[in-house]
Every structure is written in C-alpha cells, then in structure tokens.
Design a protein that fits this description.
By secondary structure, the protein is of the alpha/beta class. Helices cover 51% and strands 11% of the residues. It is built from 15 helices and 10 strands. Helix 5 links the parallel strand 1 and strand 2.
C-alpha cells in the first residue's frame, strides 16, 4: 500500500511538472511578445527562435525534475522541505539551460521571458503540490487490528508525510464476531494487523480483495502472489496485495482513462443528441438513469446509463424475481417486460452504457475492468467473490467479450478474478479491441 502510494505520487507529480514546464514556457513567450511595442517587427523571428531552443529546455528540465521527485520514494517526506527542493531544482535547471544556450551560441532571447518562465513555473508547481497534498482523495481508509498505542504510532508516521494520509476508521484490540461482516460490507482500503491473534484475518482480507499488512514479527510459510515487504515502521511489514503491483503501469492506465474518455465523449456527441430524443419519444421519464453501484474497494458511486426501462421499473422488480434467469445475486430476464422498445435497441448494442464515459472521466470507473455490481449485491457475495472490487470497475471486461448474460454467475466472477490476477496493459488493449465485434454481435445483451 505504502509503496504503491509513493510511486503513484512521484509519477503523478512528475507528469504535472512536465506539463507545467511546457505550459509556462510558451505562456512566457506569448506574454513577452504581445506586450512588446515592437511586436510586428519581432513576430517573424521570435517564435522560430523559441521553437528551436525549446527541446533544449525539455532535455534539461525533465531529468532534473525526475531526479528531484525521486525523494518521494522515501517515507515520510516533509512537505515544505520538498517545496524548497523543487524550487532549487527549477533554478538549477534554469542555470544549466542558460549555460547551454551560451555554449551553443543561442542566447539571444528575452531575459524577461526567462524570468517569467521561472516565476510562473515555481508558482504553478507549488500550487499543484499543495492541491495534491490537500486532496482528500489521497486519504487511505484504514482499520487497525491491534492496540491503540500501535495505531497512534502508525497515525503519527503518516501525519508526517506530504502527499497522502491515512484515516484510522477504527481500532480493534480483540477479535469481534462481526468483524468479518464489517470487512465485507464497509469500504476499507487497508487493514493493518499488529497482533498475532488477528493473523487469521490476513487470508480473510485477501479473499475479500482488501489490501492487508502485517506488522512483521515472525516468518510466514504461506505467502500471497502479490506481496511486498516495506521498511516503513520500527519493524518491517509484509503486505498482501489483492491486485498486481505494477504501479507505474496502473498509473498510466488510469491517466489514459482521463485522456481518452473526453475524446470518446466528443466522438460520440451525435449519439448523445439523438438517443435522448428517441428515449423521450418512446416513453415518459428521465433520459439518464442513475443507480448506486459499488466501485473500488466497495466505494459507492452513481453509475450513469441511458434509461432503457419504463419509469419506476425498479418498483416492479420484486414481482419478477421468480423469473430471474441468472444465478445467485444477479437479476436478469431475457425478455424483461420493463424494457422499452428503444431500450431493447440500446441494450442490443450497449449504447445505454455511453454515459459511463463521464464516470470514467470522474475517476469512478476505468475503460477496462470488472463491471460494477449493485450495492445490495455485494452484501450477498461469498468471500472470494468480493475480491473483484479490488480493481476499478470498467466499461468493458472479459465477461463483456465472452458472452455477457449467457455466462453463469460463477464463471463471470472467475473471469473478473482472472483479469485481476493477469492484468497488464496488453490485456486491456486486447479486451478493447475484442469489445467492438462483441458489441456489434449483441451476444448475451439483454
């Protein structure tokens, strides 16, 4: 958990730094040229000059900022010392850039532009770091199975860190009959065990898809496939991860989600105009259907869909329970009387799922991942089934390209866990490519 957050913070801040360097460089150039009285005379040579020297700034600044942010791999990181270090690194990079410009006889650009670039870079970088530091989304919801004193030590360690915190939701010093049910139903990101009496909950947490750490005081004979030992506290801890520990690749995955989703929203814009009109002509009720779903580690969010059923269809669900064609907790009927005429077409080609691109843009979902279950469904899961919540839910998944509703519940869950255990960027690309023919075929879509 700690290593994951450290790597994520480092590469997120580094990516933001690179974007800030590019943005402030050209902003300084534009400010300088548009506020100069001799603008008409400068314009012909000013931009070509800065375009020519721009790669030199990138080659200088990017490696220095990557090196500067490498301190985030340590624990803890003092925020204000890191701020000072960042400004010093920026100034060092600027001096090296100026020296290289002199060396290559290219230093004939505006000193004002360079000063503006440095000042604006400092301001934007400090603001971005402060925003990340204050972001409550970085808080790790934690349950400590141990003593209050041990929990306080853990809390104090994290209070020293600049870019993520833990929120100790509860501390249990003795085993509780209701603990397993709490782990199943509540949204915990991390469970820290400091007492041997709670050791049995390592496998329980792992089975439920919750990251669990043991305050290491003894050897273990059975180890999870995704495990790391972290020298963070006074003694090392061993962490059993429910998902892959390819942190950089996961960071790229979720970054691409935020980049690709707005592009897809623009590409599908005509459908966002036509589909609501068809829905309104077909039946009364809202265009968008909002429903509570369970996301990463059981977090609740409102999943968006184009409405495919008649208004108040949820109220008639109980009368149709006996006709359910799916196993266990999932409810599906092939010829559901609640579905409208337009709704059948939308479901046939999965067009009702298009609004979920907004969920992806908000970070609640990913383009690829297990489909988000209903909130009430996860309370009925057996332990191992809940592990599918240990990765962000997605628009498409192995289940989606393997037959959807034609697949039984057990097989569906197995496919989701297969995806989690074997995740890679290549697997995501493969699923996305296969989604297109799967959607067009309409197999299992009802």
């Amino acid at each position: 958990m700690i290593q994951q957050r450290k790597s994520f913070s480092r590469w997120l801040i580094t990516l933001i730094d690179i974007l800030i360097i590019i943005f402030t460089y050209w902003l300084a150039v534009l400010i300088r040229i548009y506020f100069d009285p001799s603008y008409n005379q400068m314009a012909n040579w000013y931009f070509p000059l800065y375009i020519r020297i721009f790669p030199l700034f990138l080659v200088t600044f990017i490696p220095i900022m990557i090196f500067n942010n490498s301190i985030l791999e340590t624990f803890p990181v003092d925020k204000y010392r890191f701020y000072t270090r960042s400004i010093t690194s920026l100034f060092t990079a600027l001096l090296i850039s100026i020296a290289l410009l002199f060396y290559f006889k290219l230093f004939n650009q505006s000193r004002i532009a360079l000063s503006l670039f440095f000042i604006m870079s400092c301001i934007f970088m400090l603001l971005s770091r402060e925003f990340i530091s204050k972001n409550k989304g970085n808080t790790i919801r934690t349950l400590v199975l141990g003593t209050l004193d041990e929990a306080k030590v853990i809390q104090d360690f994290f209070s020293l860190h600049a870019f993520f915190r833990i929120e100790v939701l509860d501390v249990l010093e003795k085993t509780d009959m209701n603990l397993q049910q709490r782990l199943k139903n509540e949204a915990f990101d991390w469970v820290i065990i400091t007492r041997e009496s709670f050791k049995a909950y390592i496998s329980i947490c792992e089975n439920l898809g919750i990251t669990v750490s043991y305050y290491l005081k003894e050897d273990f004979s059975d180890i999870s496939p995704f495990v790391s030992i972290e020298n963070t506290f006074t003694s090392p801890i061993i962490t059993f991860h429910p998902t892959s520990t390819q942190y950089i690749q996961l960071f790229i995955k979720y970054t691409l989600d935020r980049v690709i989703s707005p592009i897809l929203l623009i590409c599908f814009f005509p459908l966002y105009v036509v589909i609501p009109i068809l829905i309104k002509f077909d039946s009364r009720g809202p265009v968008i259907y909002k429903h509570k779903r369970a996301g990463l580690n059981g977090r609740r969010f409102e999943m968006l869909k184009f409405r495919t059923m008649f208004k108040n269809a949820d109220e008639t669900k109980l009368s149709l329970v006996e006709k359910n064609e799916m196993e266990k907790v999932v409810f599906k009927i092939k010829k559901d009387p609640r579905i409208t005429k337009v709704g059948k077409i939308l479901r046939r080609f999965s067009l009702d799922e298009l609004p979920q691109l907004i969920n992806v843009l908000k970070g609640e979902m990913s383009l690829v991942g297990p489909r988000p279950p209903l909130s009430e469904e996860i309370n009925k899961y057996e332990g191992w089934e809940r592990r599918r919540l240990s990765m962000k839910p997605g628009l498409t998944c192995l289940w989606q390209i393997s037959g959807r509703s034609e697949i039984g519940f057990e097989k569906w869950m197995e496919l989701d866990l297969e995806y989690i255990d074997n995740w890679s960027p290549g697997l995501d690309i493969n699923i996305l490519i296969k989604t297109i023919p799967a959607v067009l075929s309409g197999r299992g879509a009802y």
